[in-house]
TrEMBL record:
Coiled coil: none
Name the UniProt record assigns to this protein: Diguanylate cyclase
Similarity comment: family membership: Belongs to the leucine-binding protein family.
Shown residues within the full chain: 673 to 952 of 1108
Residue ranges annotated for the EAL domain, each copy included: 23-278
Organism for this UniProt entry: Methylomonas lenta
Length: 280
């Protein structure tokens, strides 16, 4: 390393050091995020492909430390690595249970059908998870059948035995299960039928390719056909224009999530959007 030009070495060392420092500061910050009240959730509506009415929402975590907001795409992997995802995930679960009960009270039968919650594999590995969620369901008097747990295909398949066991226990409690970012991992047909899965979410990367990539089109079409044949609800994520919507409609996709309809909203704006949608 020392043989390298002084500037080059300094540059390399500084940027590496900077990266380590950033990760360390994020992991330290995350440990205090709950007690400092820096976490919040937003809700991205999910609509019916045909009626375009709101059928549910995905709950997305937001972290706003004093230095400014940090993307979950950055802090979630760090929280998974350090273990902070366990208390943070419990906090997220509490929000979901609270919101589910609130909405059902607010809108009754007309309430959007479900709340989607992202769950890390690290949480499924934690044997306190079951008792924690059972307690939360009781405290908030929430209906777990209206809470959909999203686990990414890659995380699910990385340790299929452990994850399958935990997902079955959660399904026994009444929770629904979705495979997130579907198409990016390698689950087999045989595995899919063994899993307690209700919903497949087609990864945004395939939706992106719908218009001009023949391969993406073929994958999306086949995956929708496969999912429906297995009796699953199909959700396409990252839909940003009407061309994508029309294709997905033709392929028989049940639900749509994406900026074309709604961006992630604050809970207040989500409530307004549903009120408008119910009137429409
Ligand atoms: P994800 O689960 O795949 O969530 C969908 C992401 O796509 C969200 O990003 C959402 O804002 C974004 N998105 C939705 N529609 C569109 C669209 O039309 N175009 C584009 N370009 N993007 C769209 P977000 O909120 O930044 O979250 C990123 C990831 O962080 C999530 O990906 C999820 O893996 C993770 N995450 C978020 N909240 C939680 C949480 O509470 N727990 C865990 N474990 N992970 C979370
Ligand atoms: Ca998700
Ligand atoms: Ca996703
Ligand atoms: Ca994703």
């Amino acid at each position: 390393v020392k043989q390298k030009g002084k500037d080059g070495w300094h540059f390399f060392s500084a940027s590496l050091e900077e990266k380590v420092r950033q990760k360390l500061s994020i992991s330290n910050g995350l440990r205090l995020a709950i007690e400092r009240d820096e976490l919040s959730v937003c809700f991205q509506p999910i609509v019916d492909t045909h009626s375009t009415h709101i059928v549910g929402a995905e709950m997305l975590l937001r972290w706003q430390p004093p230095e400014g907001p940090i993307s979950p795409a950055i802090f979630i992997p760090i929280a998974e690595m350090t273990g902070s995802i366990i208390p943070i995930g419990a906090w997220v679960f509490a929000q979901a249970c609270r919101a589910e009960a609130d909405w059902r009270q607010r809108w009754g039968e007309q309430a959007p059908g479900y709340i989607s919650v992202n769950v890390s594999a690290r949480q499924l590995n934690d044997n306190t998870l079951l008792s924690v969620v059972q307690e939360l369901v009781k405290t908030h008097a929430s209906d777990p059948s209206r809470i959909l747990l999203e686990i990414t295909e890659t995380a699910l398949m990385a340790d299929i035995d452990t994850n399958l066991r935990m997902l079955c226990s959660l399904a026994d409690l009444g929770f629904r299960v979705a495979i997130d970012d579907f198409g990016t991992g390698y689950s087999s047909l045989a595995q899919l039928t063994k899993l307690p899965v209700n919903v497949l979410k087609i990864d945004r990367a395939f939706v992106d390719g719908l218009e001009n990539q023949a391969e993406s089109r073929a994958v999306v079409k086949a995956v929708i056909g496969l999912g429906r044949a297995l009796g699953l609800k199909m959700v396409a994520e990252g839909v940003e224009n009407s061309a994508q919507l029309l294709e997905l409609r033709n392929f028989g996709c049940d639900y749509i999530q994406g900026y074309y309809f709604y961006r992630p909203l604050t809970e207040k704006n989500f409530i307004d959007a549903v009120d408008q949608d119910i009137k429409a």
